Amino acid sequence: MDKLMDNPWFIKILAILMAVLLYSAVVPNSGSESNDINVPGGKTSEIIEEISVKAYYDTENLVVSGLPDMVEVTLEGPMPHVQSAKALKNFEVFVDLTNAKIGNQKVKFEVSGLSEKLKATIKPASVTVSIQERVSKEFTVEAEFDRDLIKEGYSAGQPTVKPNKVKITGAKDVIDRITYVKAAFEGRDLLDSTVSKKAQVQVLDKGLNKLDVVIEPETVEVTIPVKSNNKTVPINIVEKGTPPAGVTIASINLDIKEAVISGAEAVLKETDNVRVEVDVSKISGNTTLTLPVIISNGVTKVTPETVEVTVVVVKSEGEKAVSAIPINVKGLSEQYEAVVNDPTNRLINLLVFGPGDVVTGLGPNDFNIFVDLTGLTDGVHNVTIQVNGPSNVTWKPDKLSAKVTITRDNV
């Protein structure tokens, strides 16, 4: 073997044999079956959806409409290039309108930034666009809100908008169609005080369709002034029941004589007073009571809600009916005339209580009965009847109020 290894021809022959063996192992038999293998660089295609579209045109003077925001692109070519373009989306779909003229025209979509080895098919391939003159105009913004949001007992004034004008830019024919520019105040909570809120500006045509325009600014501040509906009215005393035997109600006084009421404007207009009801059937001596102020239907709030009522009584020793005492009118301005409609005869009767010898000698001339019309003007008024008389007796009138009609004296 040593002699063979030293022979150069032996080495050459051995090398040729080894080469033949290696070749037969690497190159497959042409008659044998082989498995399909994805070889890098093979052809493929991919659909890429929602590719943004750009338009190149004179944006300062023109407006383009009818162009879709997105298109679908199918890429064909070597797999690595297709997969890379799909992943990176480093290409652009556009329309070139740099030389376009005003009017409608059909334009084709183009692609830039793709490898030369890729083929792009765009769907749709073309589109008809409208090119118009770009116009800017200033419009006044009108605020609107749902009046059902105003809490009962409150009212809303005229809403204000800040800024009250906006700049609207768009195609000339769209600008000419603008009918309403509104900022709608939105909310769910009932309002009982002035409130301000940002609102989106909406531009609408006469059919209330939203128009495609650019608005500057897009939002404005809407302020709705809300105030409480208040009115100050007198608190009337209403006696309920009959005093116990031998007890005469000398006086009933309130610590607060007026109340502030809240409610809808129509309700307040019809409400002239509130009342406190005093049940005199349970009063046997001087007393102070805390009683609620009673309001009519529709009035939502009254202040104060309660008042203190001081009742003064006297023990009666005798009583006498004093009849037909005339009602006098006081405090009426010179330019007015007053007619007492009720009682129709302008007379009332008193039941007088006090010491027997004093009560016996009393007559109509011992009492001054009047209604005070100070500050009242044209109209029909219910006025409290007031009585002045001797200090050592008490009385009870058969009527507590008079209905008076006041008219302007035209003489």
Question: How many β-strand runs?
Answer: 32
- The number of helical segments is 6
| CATH class bucket of the largest domain | Mainly Beta
Secondary structure: helix percent = 10-25%
State which percent range the strand residues make up: over 45%
Overall shape:
elongated
Query: How far is it from the N-terminal to the C-terminal residue, by CA?
Result: 162 Å
Notes on the protein architecture:
This protein has 411 residues and is mainly β. The chain folds into 4 domains: 44-133, RNA Polymerase Alpha Subunit, Chain A, domain 2 (Beta Complex); 141-228, YbbR-like domain (RNA Polymerase Alpha Subunit, Chain A, domain 2), CATH 2.170.120; 229-315, RNA Polymerase Alpha Subunit, Chain A, domain 2; 316-411, RNA Polymerase Alpha Subunit, Chain A, domain 2 (Beta Complex), CATH 2.170.120. Helix content is 12%, strand content 51%. It is built from 6 helices and 32 strands. The protein has helices spanning 2-6, 8-26, 79-88, 172-176, 265-270, 356-360; strands at 43-56, 62-65, 70-78, 92-96, 103-108, 110-112, 119-123, 126-140, 142-144, 154-156, 160-162, 165-171, 180-184, 195-204, 214-216, 219-224, 226-228, 230-240, 247-254, 258-263, 274-279, 287-292, 299-303, 306-315, 318-330, 336-342, 347-354, 368-372, 379-384, 386-388, 394-397, 401-408. The strands form 8 sheets. It has a 5-stranded mixed sheet with strand order 6-4-1-3-7. Strands 2, 5, 8, 12 and 15 form a 5-stranded antiparallel sheet that branches. It is elongated.
